[in-house]
Amino acid sequence: MIKGGKGRLIDMAEVQEHNSPEKGVWVVIQGQVYDITSFINKHPGGDRIILKNAGKDVTDIYVPVHPSDAIAENLDPSQHLGQVDPSTVKEEAESEKDLSQRELKRRKALKNLPPIGTILNLDDFQRVAQTILTDQAWAYYSSAADDEITKHFNRSAYSRIWFKPRILRPVMEVDCSTELMGHDVSLPIYISPAAMAKLGHPDGEANLTKAAGEAQIVQGISANASVSLDETIANRKSDQALIYQLYVNKDRSASEKILAKIQKQPKGAFAAIMLTVDAPVMGNRESDMRAKGEEVQTGGDTEGGSSEGKGVGVAISGYIDPNIGWDIVSWYKQHCKLPLILKGVQTVDDVELAFKNGCQGVVLSNHGGRSLEYSRAPIDVLIELHQKRPDLLQKIDVLIDGGVRRGTDVLKALALGAKGVGLGRPFLYAQSGYGQEGASRAIQIMKDEIERGMRLLGITSLKQLTPEMIEILPPSFDPYLLHRQEERRREYVFEHEAATEE
Ligand code: HEM
Ligand SMILES: Cc1cc2nc3c(=O)[nH]c(=O)nc-3n(C[C@H](O)[C@H](O)[C@H](O)COP(=O)(O)O)c2cc1C
């Protein structure tokens, strides 16, 4: 099937002829022609999407969802056939008539981004993101399990904690720097590892790496990042600390290879490994599935299940081993010397087990409400930990993420003993549209809010935050409040859409 040598110029018409498994499946990616016939059945994103696009230039679909080393890691060099002859490619001038009203509106909103100075808080980034992201990207970022109750409750659970500020204390100078996994950081927040930042912006995770480096905060690198590890290392400042997030692969040697690669990086590049344990199978994220507009096969969440039509989340997670137990910690220790943080711990008992098994940290997290619907809000788990086993907060580093949107949320978690607070979606939204500038502004907004909160609380250093400075109201669940939040968000989107109409 492969004719001619690598580097030969290939007529686009020849590519187009290779549009089925029988005739061979060729695609063009960034001007290069690949024969992926033998790869179709191994493709982590499923065979359907490839068959639908066989014989075409797939650059626009391919680039946002693949790390730049995906081809080198998965294809044999012989599958690179050569370069497409540019003189044979018909520029498909995109006719506005071919675009849906929705897509036209989206593009207009992207061109008319509100000036970044009008973005006052993290919710503003989300509102803008909803107007500028493709349906697929918005669904992937915003979706959560089942009815998305957990996602909303993660956030509103913070509202049962109130402050008891002290007065008449000099607060001109405040210092919100701290230490996270042995590294000095300027703020107690970090970027939670979240996949596929390129769905929101062409530079993807690079925006976050650069912004985190400038601000001296830690970035969690998702196992499913759309920027390759090598590029991330290249984007990192020489003294910048990252955390690598790992899912244990059914093929253990693949995970071992990644751990070996992480440990070969410059000393200090990785502060720790975050092993995510709250998603042995993917949560049921229906908006993510709907955005694909394809029929979904039911059944078989694990071995042998089909990922057809199930959305980005399921497509990229098929390799995760659902069959791991606590002995995974000793497996890890055999292969990696970096501190281990278990991400997705949701009970006091499991914090204790993490400590007893020799983990250095835990992240209290329910995956931003994307895994088990009705899993408790992480801040509620922290409250329970603080009340029942405050000793554990001294023995193991407790981090937390999920629903954190304000500087005051961060101060509440720290007052209860958390060492660091992660934010996931806000950074994905902030870099969509605004790129690195958006990520930097999101960090600055959090810094301003944390510093202002500290001053108003009457403290000048994070060490002065104590449980005595907060009051915890009894748990309550107010579906009406959740509903109002959703409505307010939608109202804004309609306003913004109206504003971008001519
Ligand atoms: C050229 C060879 C290809 C390789 C080596 C490859 C590799 C991969 C890998 C490794 C993933 C998982 C992403 C991750 O873990 O971060 C993935 C997902 C995905 N791939 Fe590919 N891929 C190839 C071609 C294509 C083509 C031609 C298309 C579409 C025309 C495509 C569309 C997708 C999509 C959309 C996903 C995300 C999951 C989804 O939405 O279903 N891929 N691919
Ligand atoms: C779009 C998206 C992708 C994510 N990808 C990952 C991932 O690859 N690995 C992981 O451990 N957690 C992942 N998470 C979960 C985040 O690390 C984090 O726990 C969650 O986003 C925190 O909630 P928040 O979005 O309310 O801040 C993802 C979250 C989102 C929203």
UniProtKB/TrEMBL annotation:
Which GO molecular function annotation, any one, does this entry have? L-lactate dehydrogenase (cytochrome) activity
- Residue ranges of domain FMN hydroxy acid dehydrogenase in the record: 114-475
Keywords attached to this Swiss-Prot or TrEMBL record, sorted alphabetically, are: Flavoprotein, FMN, Heme, Iron, Metal-binding, Mitochondrion, Oxidoreductase, Transit peptide, Transport
The cofactor(s) it depends on are: heme b; FMN
Tell me, how does this one assemble? Answer: Homotetramer.
Q: Which family does it belong to?
A: In the C-terminal section; belongs to the FMN-dependent alpha-hydroxy acid dehydrogenase family.
> Where in this protein does the record put region Disordered?
286-309
Catalysis: reaction(s): (S)-lactate + 2 Fe(III)-[cytochrome c] = 2 Fe(II)-[cytochrome c] + pyruvate + 2 H(+)
- Has the keyword Ribosomal protein been applied to this entry? no
Q: Where is the composition biased (Basic and acidic residues)?
A: 286-295
Q: Where in the cell is it found?
A: Mitochondrion intermembrane space
Domain (Cytochrome b5 heme-binding) ranges: 7-85
Lineage, uppermost ranks: Eukaryota, Fungi, Dikarya, Basidiomycota, Ustilaginomycotina
Official protein name in the record: L-lactate dehydrogenase (cytochrome)
Q: Which Pfam families match?
A: Cyt-b5, FMN_dh
Record GO biological process: lactate metabolic process
